[in-house]
Design brief:
The protein is an all-alpha fold and about 180 residues long. It contains seven helices and no strands. Helix content is about 60%, strand content about 0%.
Length: about 180
């Protein structure tokens, strides 16, 4: 089960692999914004804690849907208009980063995800109180080490492929002149 650090790593890898702007991952404001977007669907845990005292009360419902990713992607891609310190990312990048959370939950956990809400809805079961959630988020981060390493390797491999292509293209151009 990806925790916040794992979701952030997956979001950063999604941004890095799917989009050309390599400088995004070198500026802390972009890294923070991407980490927030990648964890946005889990705001339902906070809502469950605040309103029911149970982090699973609303978990894996509407915030884990394509509709949510679409709407939040649109809002996030325009958030810089409200506050200039918010980084500019296009809609597709914001949408894909949020969608990466849903994909990670789908592939890396056994619980159902409400991809097609409102046509379907799946809720997490069980009880997760404040202590359970704090322990998972702050003390359970070691569980995400494999995810973080995998995402780092993917990002490094992408850069290596780009360097190889760039080098090969340079050799072809110099050979043709």
């Amino acid at each position: 089960m990806p925790l916040p650090l794992g979701h952030a790593a997956i979001g950063l890898a999604t941004q890095d692999v799917c989009f050309r702007d390599h400088s995004v991952t070198t500026r802390w404001t972009y890294v923070l914004f991407i980490a927030i977007l990648a964890n946005l669907p889990d705001m339902d845990v906070l809502m469950g804690l605040l309103f029911q005292g149970n982090g699973n009360a609303y978990h894996r419902g509407p915030t884990h849907s394509v509709v949510f990713a679409f709407l939040m992607g649109f809002l996030a891609s325009n958030a810089w208009r409200l506050w200039t310190h918010i980084p500019k990312l296009n809609f597709l990048a914001c949408f894909m980063i949020i969608l990466s959370h849903l994909a990670a939950d789908f592939f890396l956990t056994s619980s159902a995800v409400s991809f097609f809400w409102p046509l379907e809805v799946h809720w997490a079961t069980g009880y997760k109180g404040w202590g359970d959630v704090f322990n998972l988020v702050f003390l359970g981060g070691f569980r995400d080490v494999g995810i973080i390493i995998t995402c780092g390797v993917i990002m490094i491999l992408k850069r290596a492929v780009i360097q190889i292509r760039h080098h090969a293209l340079g050799e072809r151009r110099s050979g043709q002149v």
